[in-house]
């Protein structure tokens, strides 16, 4: 915590701002004050209005009421260029890099390029990006297309782009959601936040990781139902107090204890012996029916690649069996055999932005929603009835089921990805970052769905960067390093320390991977 901004007059004030979308009141009297050099946490459950508030500051939306004041004067932020002129910079939760551009090219989008005579000075462009990256992510590849970067690297590339010019306010929306708690990138980002604060730049920090909020922020504002329900200095409140303000009730939802449930049956549901992804990636896995297995590792360890290989989205060499039968036919074949997949990057891989929320929920069930059997004519009424049932079960907050999923908050987008698989038999669930960017209430609901899937007899593999989630959810944890499973932890040896040590390649000699359950193949 920097204690910056203490005693300073705020330079940015939002007073009673509102923004309605039809009958939906996204903001309905929100207040916010930020002083120069302050790290200010904006917290609230998904759908509380945080994203809408950010869009008002960025000029994407205009307030329907209230006032925005900058240096004491009313400010009209007519669009992104006006926000840029005020010195506002934004690092959004959903990444917006051009996949074919490298880090340097993405960083210079929308900026005046340096020239040497009549030609663009690419060396100067690269040198400027390299200087910014050196403070944040010195190992970030600058010349690799964004499509080939890991999610964590893409997040860091977004941050580099935002910090290319001086700023009065940097808005960071879940900036560490793609980063493992154990890896150096998260601490580098925290160091950058502190540097910005010391230099006089204010940081509006949106995060569902309350430990991060308590460690970094000077001030806080809590939104609930589009209104400000609490604000003050972080030193004067604790985690439980923040959760009470966010939820309007007791703080117990944050703790996410491991739920009591029936033990796995012991029958092997999934068995795999495969080489996949980059050279050297190789794993042997056995997972029982009804078992929830956590998959952990630093960014680049191979977690997502392993899940995609099991899903049939990456070529593999070896065998994969589900309930004794070979898995084949790519993702379509997996779906037919009862496998489901929730990807990490929900925007690029999870849903079709051009389709409605209802149609996205129905994508896995299209053959069930036909007006005439064997003809691909969708029964719209059945699709909407299914979408309403799923929305009710998952408490999906949406203005309309006919809206684009891009209008949903991050947590509700995540619920959509789970909801599309409901209503069909599941034998295997492959889940990558099940609650990235999700508030504590939605996290508990998603964990409940995962446990119900396991209780039905499915094998579940959940890859997560959140240690607390890992410990609360998993019966057993597989830790990856360098494309291989280096530890298989359960029972008394499943501790935070053991998981982190294994992720860094320091697994205790006394607890090697269990040879009949999961092991690296030499």
Can you give a write-up of this model?
This protein is α/β, with parallel strands linked by helices. Among the domains are: 1-87 and 168-255, Rossmann fold, CATH 3.40.50; 99-165, no CATH class. 31% of the residues lie in helices and 24% in strands. It is built from 17 helices and 23 strands. It has a six-stranded mixed beta sheet with strand order 6-9-10-3-11-12, sandwiched between helices. α4 (122-136) crosses α5 (151-162) and α14 packs parallel to α15. Residues 251-256 and 508-522 have low confidence and may be disordered.
Percent helix range: 25-40%
User: What general form does the structure show?
Assistant: globular
Instruction: State the separation between the terminal residues, measured CA to CA.
Output: 45 Å
CATH topology of the domain at 1-87 and 168-255: Rossmann fold
Name the structural class. Answer: alpha/beta
Would you count the extended β strands for me? 23
Low-confidence stretches: 251-256, 508-522
* CATH class assignment of the domain at 1-87 and 168-255: Alpha Beta
- Main sheet? 6 strands, mixed
Mean pLDDT: 85
Strand content: 15-25%
| Cα Rg | 24 Å
Mind telling me which CATH architecture of the domain at 1-87 and 168-255 this is?
3-Layer(aba) Sandwich
- The strand line-up of the biggest sheet is 6-9-10-3-11-12
Give the oligomeric state: single chain
What's the total helix number?
17
| CATH homologous superfamily grouping of the domain at 1-87 and 168-255 | P-loop containing nucleotide triphosphate hydrolases
């Amino acid at each position: 915590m920097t204690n910056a901004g203490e005693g300073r007059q705020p330079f940015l004030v939002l007073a009673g701002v509102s923004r309605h979308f039809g009958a939906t009141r996204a903001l309905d009297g929100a207040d916010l004050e930020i002083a120069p050099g302050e790290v200010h946490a904006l917290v609230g459950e998904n759908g509380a209005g945080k994203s809408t508030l950010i869009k008002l500051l960025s000029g994407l939306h205009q307030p329907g009421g209230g006032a925005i004041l900058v240096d004491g004067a009313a400010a009209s932020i007519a669009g992104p260029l006006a926000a840029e002129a005020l010195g506002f910079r934004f690092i959004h939760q959903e990444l917006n890099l051009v996949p074919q551009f490298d880090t340097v090219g993405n960083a210079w989008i929308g900026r005046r390029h340096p020239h040497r005579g009549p030609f663009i000075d690419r060396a100067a462009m690269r040198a400027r990006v390299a200087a910014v990256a050196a403070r944040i992510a010195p190992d970030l590849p600058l010349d690799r297309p964004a499509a080939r970067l890991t999610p964590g690297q893409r997040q860091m590339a977004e941050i580099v782009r935002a910090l290319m010019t001086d700023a009065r306010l940097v808005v960071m929306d879940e900036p560490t959601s793609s980063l493992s708690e154990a890896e150096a990138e998260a601490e580098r980002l925290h160091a950058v936040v502190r540097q910005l604060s010391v230099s006089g730049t204010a940081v509006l920090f949106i995060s569902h990781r309350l430990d991060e909020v308590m460690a970094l922020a000077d001030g806080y504002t809590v939104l609930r139902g589009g209104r400000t329900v609490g604000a003050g200095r972080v030193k004067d409140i604790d985690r439980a107090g923040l959760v009470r303000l966010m939820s309007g009730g007791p703080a117990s939802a944050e703790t996410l204890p491991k739920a009591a449930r029936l033990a796995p049956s012991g029958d092997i549901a999934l068995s795999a012996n495969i080489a996949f992804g980059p050279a050297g990636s190789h794993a042997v896995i056995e997972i029982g029916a009804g078992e929830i297995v956590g998959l952990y590792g630093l960014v680049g360890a191979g977690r997502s690649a392993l899940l995609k290989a099991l899903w049939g989205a990456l070529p593999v060499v070896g065998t994969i069996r589900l309930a004794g039968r070979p898995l084949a036919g790519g993702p379509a074949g997996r779906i037919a055999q009862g496998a489901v997949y929730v990807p990490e990057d929900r925007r690029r891989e999870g849903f079709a932005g051009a389709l409605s929320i209802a149609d996205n929920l129905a994508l896995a069930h299209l053959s069930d929603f036909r007006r005439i059997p064997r003809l691909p004519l969708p029964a719209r009424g059945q699709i909407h009835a299914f979408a309403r049932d799923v929305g009710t079960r998952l408490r999906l907050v949406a203005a309309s089921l006919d809206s684009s999923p891009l209008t949903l908050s991050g947590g509700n987008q995540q619920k959509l990805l789970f909801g599309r698989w409901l209503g069909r038999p599941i034998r295997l669930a492959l889940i990558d970052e099940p609650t990235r960017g999700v508030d504590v209430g939605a996290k508990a609901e998603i964990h409940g769905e995962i446990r119900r899937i396991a209780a039905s007899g499915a094998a579940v593999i959940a890859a997560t960067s959140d240690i607390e989630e890992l410990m609360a959810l998993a019966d057993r944890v597989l830790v990856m390093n360098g494309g291989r499973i280096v530890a298989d932890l359960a029972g008394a040896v499943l501790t935070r320390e053991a998981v982190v040590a294994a992720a860094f390649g320091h697994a205790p000699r006394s607890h090697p991977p269990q040879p009949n359950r999961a092991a690296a193949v030499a």
